[in-house]
Amino acid sequence: MNYDFNITLSKESRLSTVDFDNLVFGKIFSDHMFVADYVDGQWTNLEIRPTATMEVHPANMAWHYGQSIFEGMKATRDDIGTPLLFRPEMHAVRMNKSAVRMCMPEIPEDMFVQAVSNLVALDKAWIPPAQGSALYVRPFMFATDEYVGVRPSETYRFIIICAPVGPYYAKPVKLKAEETYVRAAVGGVGEAKTAGNYAASLYPAMLAKKEGYDQIMWLDAKEFKFIQEVGTMNIFFLIDGKVVTPATDGTILKGITRDTMMHIMKDKGLEVEVRPISIDELLQAYDAGKLQEVFGTGTAAVVAIVSDIKYKDRVLSLDAENYVVGPMLKETINGIRAKKIADTHGWIQEATIELQAV
Ligand code: COI
Fold first, then answer.
1. HEC profile of the chain
2. What fold does the segment set 6-166+347-357 form as a domain?
3. Fold exhibited by the domain 173-323
4. What is the whole-number distance in angstroms between the Cα of residue 302 and the centre of ligand 1?
5. Taking residues 209-215, what's their average pLDDT?
6. Which of 89, 147, 244, 336 has a 20 to 30 A CA-CA distance from 153?
7. pLDDT tens digits, 272-306
8. Mean of the pLDDT values across residues 234-249?
9. Domain ranges (residues) in the chain
10. CB-ligand 1 contact for 232 (6 Å cutoff)
11. What is the number of the ligand 1 atom nearest to the C-alpha of 25?
12. Is a pLDDT exceeding 50 seen at residue 63?
């Protein structure tokens, strides 16, 4: 179905103020945003309009009880500037899974994809040209009822904003395996892309930073034994020639980049095992000289090389300079996104907007 979006163009573009060679992740936003409201059981007021601040009532339920979910996806361009989306329908599906878990309304998948496509096409000049840079697209939804009793909100707002970005991690990442705090327990909301998961990670991450580590590698909430994810990305280990990544059990975000990477690795003939992996197995592999690579995958991070993992009083230091699989994956996904490598899985689609509607 084709949805009718009301389109109001910004009077003056801010694009000329942006230095594409020095992009800080997530601080600059493109000229336009998409906004829709959920009222009386349906999505209404579908609109693309200039990106701007908005008023929110102090009793807004999202602020008090946390009904807030989001997605992160990237738009890129080919050599002639065609705006390209990467697996947008997967993000629509995942957004709706998060919505169901957080008792929020689902968004019709075709509406989600059309909104992303039209917005990116309109702001295509904001897609940085350098390979590895992208227009980060952030769809999000939050409760809008003005009420301080605890119940699901009856009204919601769905917004999409876009930010030109460079790499999320500019250098190899050091991880601390967490032994005190937990990100998610079985039965909790770990698989949902909900704001609270990120809020809960901030304090342990701050403590890890003080010790010189960039991120937490989360362990399971029951035994502190099995590796979950990193919070900003899913995690992969190359052990003795085989790639291992933790199985999703409801506590781990089902990364779309994780899925993409598993396809690429299989295409390249690599064996990928999806199964529980314990911190003890990791230590044993390291001690036996079999832990060859550790890398994280995520929309923002793409592929982040991990150079060190701290666990209790040990630090596993890896030869990150000489990784092969992680850099190959990064090059492949960036190449597909720039249309320089064949898109054999049909992941790429062009972002479009009907100009006569503008
Ligand atoms: C993403 O990778 O898109 C995320 O949402 C993670 C966040 C740390 C930026």
1. CCCCCEECCCCCCCHHHCCCCCCCCCCCCCCEEEEEEEECCEEEEEEEEECCCCCCCCCEHHHHHCCEEECCEEEEECCCCCEEEECHHHHHHHHHHHHHHCCCCCCCHHHHHHHHHHHHHHCHHHCCCCECEEEEEEEEEEECCECCCCCCCCCEEEEEEEEEECCCCCCCEEEEECCCCCCCCCCCCCCCCEHHHHHHHHHHHHHHHHCCCCEEECECCCCCCEECCCCCCEEEEEECCEEEECCCCCCCCCCHHHHHHHHHHHHCCCCEEECCCEHHHHHHHHHCCCEEEEEEEECCCEEEEEEEEEECCEEEECCHHHCCHHHHHHHHHHHHHCCCCCCCCCCEEECCCCHHHC
2. D-amino Acid Aminotransferase; Chain A, domain 1 (3.30.470)
3. D-amino Acid Aminotransferase; Chain A, domain 2 (3.20.10)
4. 10
5. 97
6. 89
7. 999 999 999 999 999 999 999 999 999 999 999 99
8. 97
9. 6-166+347-357, 173-323
10. yes
11. 9
12. yes
- Same CATH topology for 6-166+347-357 and 173-323? no
Which of 25, 168, 216, 252 should be mutated for ligand 1, with most atoms under 8 A from CB?
A: 168
Going by alpha carbons, the residue nearest to atom 9 of ligand 1 is 300
Q: 40 CA distance to ligand 1 centroid (A)?
A: 31
Confidence of residue 131 (pLDDT cuts 50, 70, 90): confident
242-270 per-position pLDDT tens digit: 999 999 999 999 999 999 999 999 999 99
What is the model's pLDDT at position 357? 45
